[in-house]
């Protein structure tokens, strides 16, 4: 990861208020190509509001969002997705009754070539299953060989893998993961962390929101710390310990101490 590059996604001075409650108070953030940037902070620190602004779910009152060195204004989540920013939320938004391939292409179903697809709108099930297998394989997901299995038959970790694979398949610029290991056991958490590394190795930058400090320090290149609606610091696992990060997050110490 090389921070000499231009950020692929950048927030400058984001402000967001909800009545008298200040969600964001002039927040900056930089995400560079091919890195995992963790965003941490106590409840109420503004990390959820920050992510919502970066992914089109909220529109900031002030400040700028730059994507690929261009000033961008997202009108909503669909707009952010159209710009190549995919988000995997905690609830995953998968359809349990549909199979893995159908979930990967949910809302983006591919049609058969020729008149069958253009005129009769026939879905290319075989083609989508082929591409789904290719996407899962490219991400090193070996536990989901059969893409015709309904999602309701999968474990929590496997469902998370499907959601991440869907984001990777369409998130051409940035993938945002919201607490991806929150409900998982140790083995499945490790599989998701490996998935995050594979995304980074493919050159896809990842924003990881997590309360799990060991996971953050295991996979993050840099760590953005939110506190009281502001960016308290940006640190790295090489320069700071978990104890340091918690102390900055809670206000027990300043970043430069």
TrEMBL record:
CDD domains hit by this protein: ABC_Carb_Monos_I
InterPro entries given in the database record: AAA+_ATPase, ABC_carbohydrate_import_ATPase, ABC_transporter-like_ATP-bd, ABC_transporter-like_CS, P-loop_NTPase
Domain ABC transporter, chain residue ranges per copy: 9-253
A UniProt-annotated Pfam family: ABC_tran
Keywords attached to this entry: ATP-binding, Nucleotide-binding
Superkingdom assignment: Bacteria
GO molecular function, one term: ATP binding
Annotated PROSITE patterns: ABC_TRANSPORTER_1 (PS00211), ABC_TRANSPORTER_2 (PS50893)
Protein name: ATP-binding cassette domain-containing protein
Species whose genome carries this gene: Glycomyces luteolus
């Amino acid at each position: 990861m090389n921070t000499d590059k231009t950020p692929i996604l950048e927030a400058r001075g984001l402000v967001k208020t909800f009545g008298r409650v200040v969600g964001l108070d002039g927040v900056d953030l930089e995400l560079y190509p091919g890195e995992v940037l963790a965003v941490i902070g106590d409840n109420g620190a503004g990390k959820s509001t920050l992510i919502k602004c970066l992914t089109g779910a909220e529109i900031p009152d002030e400040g700028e969002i730059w994507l690929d060195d261009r000033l961008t204004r997202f009108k909503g989540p669909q707009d952010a997705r159209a710009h190549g920013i995919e988000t995997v939320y905690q609830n995953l938004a998968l359809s349990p009754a549909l199979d893995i391939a159908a979930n990967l292409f949910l809302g983006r179903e591919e049609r058969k070539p020729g008149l069958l697809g253009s005129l009769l709108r026939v879905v290319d099930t075989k083609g989508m299953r082929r591409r789904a297998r290719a996407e899962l394989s490219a991400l090193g997901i070996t536990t989901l060989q059969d893409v015709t299995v309904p999602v309701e038959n999968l474990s929590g970790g496997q469902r998370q893998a499907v959601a991440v694979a869907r984001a990777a398949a369409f998130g051409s610029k940035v993938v945002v993961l919201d607490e991806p290991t929150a409900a998982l056991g140790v083995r499945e958490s490790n599989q998701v962390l490996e998935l995050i590394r594979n995304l980074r190795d493919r050159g896809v930058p990842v924003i990881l929101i997590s309360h799990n400090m060991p996971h953050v320090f295991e996979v993050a290149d840099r760590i953005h710390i939110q506190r009281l609606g502001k960016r308290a610091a940006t640190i790295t696992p090489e320069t700071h310990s978990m104890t340091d990060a918690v102390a900055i997050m809670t206000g027990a110490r300043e970043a430069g101490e």
